[in-house]
Design goal:
Oligomer: single chain
Helix content: 40-55%
Strand content: 15-25%
Number of domains: 3
Shape: elongated
CATH topology of the largest domain: Aminoglycoside 3'-phosphotransferase, Chain: A, domain 2
Radius of gyration: 30 Å
Number of strands: 22
Largest sheet: 9 strands, mixed
Number of helices: 16
Length: about 575
């Protein structure tokens, strides 16, 4: 037998994701949908396949050319889309005297194609349609004798059932004459003609199988999940491949990712869903996977990534529970115990900085490969003015009034830096405690940069608001710990830390303003007063000479902010 795979569609319901990747090349569990369909047809005994193309045809052609299949696979480009039936007639010279397969390129299924073909050969009718019980879109009416009698709900009667057309069909060559040549025509139009002229269309109703189409983002993501989740549990625990998997949304934080806890039997894992890829360039999920695996190979305490699919954005990883450092600090009354815990975290921070930088590939960083002047000035200083001062506080300011101070901040931050692996968001909600062990999560923004920045992130964290005296002791502990291992100027290190406190604090307030005002995540608003107070305190350590305009602005906002908070 021969077969045709319909791959010319525009994938409009999957926009914007299909702007750069044609729907047939969407991957699931490491293989694109087109490849799995070709493989299934090969196993069913297909001798050759033709694939019609239109949207991003060159990418489908390239994929086929780059792979060595055991049977010939051809393509036929359609300058104008001809529809399912029109595409079949357009390649009429490809067909021979035998019945042939036609399969949509946007389905994921384990239906046995060989059984479908054998069923078609067992009856005298010109068409076999494979139908599936998918309640959301059941529209094809089938009578009690197994014949298709209509294609909309009005065709259903007391003696019929409704099913969904799977996009899998077998046709006799004699139907080609009913299809107009060179213009658009659909298979459903063809089948209506057949029924009107007295021909019969057989329904093949498979049992104990799965079928999904990936025509929408939701269906594609579900198809990836239902294929990969059992694989992830099998890989992680070796005994969960056939058990039911439950998925429950868990609270995320500031990002747009969706988090789930997956349970199967006595086991659990976490799914981080970053969303479907919109661009060819590296994205957040690429960094999350690459950096997470890198840190794991260095023996650092980050969650194990069991399985991932960078295109769909789904990452299956170790479940570290729900106990953040923030929770631990809030529930610990002893300042001595808190200080002891933070010293352990600082020890881990220094290890991560020194070990994580080894063999670190800057290309893994999806934002910038290193923490540099541009990041400080644009992503922290300007971000503070635009997202917090202008966007949230609604205060009109001129960037040029602060430009010299921001440049001074950037210059001195970098001048005093001790460079290493930089997490970039090393705060209490990204530090987990499980079975008396400390873990670090959310490392996707990592790059090369000053260890002092991560130290500042930890100590000025508004979620816990450590006492100022404790912050000073911990900063001094960090400098002494480093100086005992490598030769550094302790005072220069601490000076870099003080500059990093300001840079990080500007970034925090920018983020809080953006998340509150734009993303409508109002719970961040509660931490703004603490962040403002810390920024003002940090600026005052330098006096009024170095940051006069910035200090004046922050003082003014701090004095007015309680009224703002009352209304927010």
């Amino acid at each position: 037998m021969k077969a045709m795979i319909l791959a010319a569609g525009l994938g409009t319901r999957l926009l914007p994701f299909t702007q750069t990747t044609p729907k047939p090349l969407f991957p699931i569990a490491g293989r694109c949908v087109l490849e799995t369909i070709i493989d299934a047809l090969q196993k069913a005994g297909c001798e050759s396949i033709i694939v019609n193309t239109h949207h991003l045809a060159h990418k489908i052609q390239a994929f086929i050319s780059e792979n060595e299949f055991t049977i010939p696979v051809y393509t036929r480009y359609e300058p104008e889309i001809l529809g399912t039936a029109g595409a079949i007639r357009n390649v009429e010279r490809f067909w021979d005297h035998r019945p042939f397969f036609v399969v949509n390129s946007d389905i994921v299924t384990d239906i046995d194609f060989g059984a479908v073909y054998r069923f078609h050969l067992s009856h005298p009718d010109p068409v076999t349609m494979v139908l599936y019980d998918y309640a959301e879109i059941n529209t094809v009416a089938v009578n009690g004798c197994g014949f298709v009698v209509g294609f909309d709900t009005s065709a259903a009667g007391d003696s019929t059932v409704k099913r969904t057309f799977t996009g899998i069909q077998v046709l006799d060559p004699k139907v080609l004459g009913l299809i107009p040549r060179g213009r658009y025509s659909s298979s459903i139009d063809l089948y209506r003609k057949l029924i009107l002229k007295g021909d019969k269309i057989r329904a093949f109703l498979p049992k104990n199988c799965t079928w999904m189409d990936i025509g929408t983002p939701e269906r594609y993501r579900d198809a990836v999940f239902y294929r990969m989740a059992p694989m992830a549990f099998e890989k992680a625990f070796n005994d969960c491949g056939e058990k039911e998997i439950h998925r429950q949304v868990i609270q995320g934080d500031g990002s747009d990712r969706t988090w789930y806890r997956l349970t199967s039997g006595k086991h659990a894992m976490v799914l981080a869903d970053h969303g479907i890829r919109k661009q060819a360039a590296p994205t957040e999920v690429d960094s999350f996977i690459a950096i997470g695996r890198h840190l794991r190979t260095k023996g650092l305490p980050v969650p194990d990534i069991y399985l991932s699919d960078a295109f769909s954005g789904q990452v299956f990883l170790e479940d570290l529970g729900d106990r953040h450092l923030q929770t631990e600090v809030k529930q610990t009354k002893s300042l001595f115990k808190i200080e002891k815990l933070y010293k352990k975290i600082i020890d881990l921070l220094l290890k991560m900085s020194s070990e994580g930088i080894k063999q670190f590939n800057p290309a893994w960083a999806y934002q910038t490969p290193e923490y540099d002047r541009k990041v400080i000035v644009e992503k922290e200083c300007r971000y503070f003015l635009e997202a917090f001062v202008k966007g949230y506080i609604k205060r009109s300011v001129n960037y040029d009034d602060f430009a010299d101070e921001f440049e001074y901040l950037a210059k001195n931050t970098l001048q005093h830096q001790l460079s290493g692996f930089m997490h970039r968001d090393f705060q209490s909600r990204n530090i987990m405690l499980k079975q008396n062990r400390i873990y670090v999560i959310d490392f996707q923004a990592a790059r090369i940069g000053p260890v002092q920045y991560d130290l500042a992130s930890l100590l000025i964290d508004p979620y816990v608001a450590l006492p100022a005296a404790l912050q000073k002791r911990l900063a001094r502990y960090c400098s002494e710990k480093i100086s005992s291992e490598i030769k550094i100027e302790k005072e220069s290190f601490l000076m870099g830390y003080r500059f990093c406190r300001i840079a990080r604090n500007l970034q925090i307030l920018g983020a809080f303003g953006y998340l509150t005002q734009v993303k409508k995540k109002r719970y961040f608003e509660a931490y703004i007063p603490k962040a403002l107070n810390t920024l003002l305190t940090s600026l005052k350590t330098f006096g009024t000479v170095m940051f006069p305009n910035l200090m004046a602005l922050v003082e003014t906002i701090s004095q007015a902010y309680p009224k703002k908070g009352d209304t927010g």
